[in-house]
């Protein structure tokens, strides 16, 4: 580990869309004379956004205007529109007459923006710990320790950190007993692992677990990818439900709605989040539902049954077998149980997000348990001077939009302004 560590005003942990938007906001502040020395640390070897789910034909579910910067500054050179212009596709995109680019294209846009900040990101490093630089009070700076892919530890010092590590794949307890079974695939790694030997053969059986957007996208992709495979979509609900993206409801994702949510007492916040869950959780884009329904109807016409729906299903147990994975299910209404064996199981079961990632453990005694403040900072003791911000983990206090792309442009400016104000006060 280096003895003389590099020092930065702020270190961003993770370099996905949230901290990428922050990099833009900090760069803007720098050009206005309030610049900070910022570095970002990313565990992936290169920029990729949800690489495991960049499925052919999958589109974004939000407008391209909700890119990294447009809602704050549509004249920025880093808008999606300027990306199209620089790539020579602006007129062709206009001819598509859509606000919703493909997920593959939007990932390319994000990577194009990330390329502008390549000198400010250390790729291929996993954060091990964030520690006080000194354990006597007051704490004025932090030690950020990371590990490279070769196993070398890197030490850096900083006055502030912004954590944006996204969610960890959620594996239901009934599947956790299978450990790292090679045929158990979370949707986050779908494209990386779905090419396992044997899945393309006629007669292969694959189960998809979940009733939301990713589950249906994967089911349709499997149908197209493996013509000889049989796919079961297993979920607890009575039916697959459409997402509500109507214009009035969609206003809950406006950045200004964050203030309304944050100003409510805790019980009202929870009630509001629950009331609008059908905009984001266990729901499916209506166009995709129609695609799946047409597949099922065509099966009826042809007399086949390659894709099967298993609604109202509770998964009671799983077991590794010589052929793959066995799943025991119970129909919650009929009360009947059955066991089916699969060559692979895909978990479209979402993600878990924590306001206290494990690498923050050394500084937890200095932090408060309360919600994040309005600027996404974790409140801390008065003798702990560094600011610790979290992006994408404040749904309970800031609303459903916090885990989505909708507020990136405005949230990044709020955090940037808070950081600049804090450093201005520190320097008198």
Automatic annotation (TrEMBL):
Its cofactor is FAD. Pfam families: Lys_Orn_oxgnase. GO terms for biological process: intracellular iron ion homeostasis. It comes from the Bacteria. InterPro entries: FAD/NAD-bd_sf, Lys/Orn_oxygenase. Pathway: Siderophore biosynthesis. Keywords: FAD, Flavoprotein, Monooxygenase, NADP, Oxidoreductase. Gene3D superfamilies: FAD/NAD(P)-binding domain. One of its GO terms (molecular function) is monooxygenase activity. Belongs to the lysine N(6)-hydroxylase/L-ornithine N(5)-oxygenase family. This is Ornithine monooxygenase. It comes from Methylobacterium aquaticum.
